[in-house]
Design goal:
By secondary structure, this protein is an alpha+beta fold. The chain is built from three helices and 14 strands.
């Protein structure tokens, strides 16, 4: 009899845990969906976006799954255009196609893709390779936030699939005000925390700039960076500003 009762308790606990996980998954998807919708939603899927970042010009053409991401800049002699599309990576120098070693293709692709990825967040967080985990709620600067961790499957997650992101999405507005991420460096793990500012909508799509911070202590977890920012324990490294944004 005791064994039957014990098995019933264990089964009930497992059933509750399963339902709790299902509820959390549904909840996190709803949070991300609302944040994406408020930021422009599916308008991103059929758009041409251009902007300047630092000394380079970027252009992204999206058409319902077809895409072309470009980066334009000049070196001391040549005009260079890097292109990532459904077909892969290409580099053009003064309009002529340049052969690139595979090792540099990976490096250039990651560099171009990273800028375009950050420029339209949170759009992209429903991609097939994304794994979302709800981490609960957290207060930052006297406001309440949903805390969502994003990781990536190896298949389809890109070269940096091991990177871990955390998003703080305002529980009232569903705007993604903060994000943090960890990435691999030669000497260990790199950590960054970004504070969004200068929010503006261009033809219905939301864009922001970022204050870019890092922790003094590299042994902390990426999930702790919100708390460290709230208590002014992060160092400002740079500003991530998008200039001359246009949307067609």
């Amino acid at each position: 009899m005791k064994r039957v009762v014990l098995l019933s308790i264990i089964y009930g606990f497992m059933l509750f845990s399963c339902k709790e996980r299902q509820a959390s998954t549904l909840n996190v998807n709803e949070i991300i969906n609302k944040s994406i919708e408020i930021s422009g939603g599916e308008k991103f899927a059929t758009s041409t976006i251009e902007f300047d970042f630092r000394d380079k010009h970027y252009k992204a053409i999206r058409n319902n799954g077809l895409y072309q991401f470009e980066r334009h800049f000049n070196d001391s002699v040549f005009s260079i255009k890097d292109v990532i599309s459904n077909k892969g990576f290409s580099r053009f120098v003064t309009d002529g196609l340049l052969e690139i070693p595979d090792s540099m293709v990976v490096k250039y692709s990651a560099s171009v893709n990273s800028v375009h990825y950050f420029s339209i967040l949170p759009y992209g967080l429903n991609d097939d390779a994304v794994i979302k985990t709800y981490l609960g709620e957290e207060i930052i600067k006297n406001d309440n936030y949903h805390k969502v961790q994003v990781t990536f499957m190896q298949d389809g997650g890109g070269e940096d699939f091991e990177d871990v992101f955390v998003y703080w999405i305002n529980s009232r507005t569903f705007i993604a005000d903060f994000l943090a991420y960890s990435y691999n460096e030669k000497d260990g793990l790199g950590l960054r925390f970004r504070e969004a500012y200068n929010e503006r909508f261009v033809n219905g799509l939301r864009f922001v700039d970022y204050n870019n911070f890092k922790p003094e202590d590299k042994t902390v977890s990426v999930t702790e960076l919100g708390s460290l920012f709230d208590t002014n324990q992060l160092k400002l490294l740079s500003k991530i500003d998008l200039k001359n944004v246009t949307v067609n």
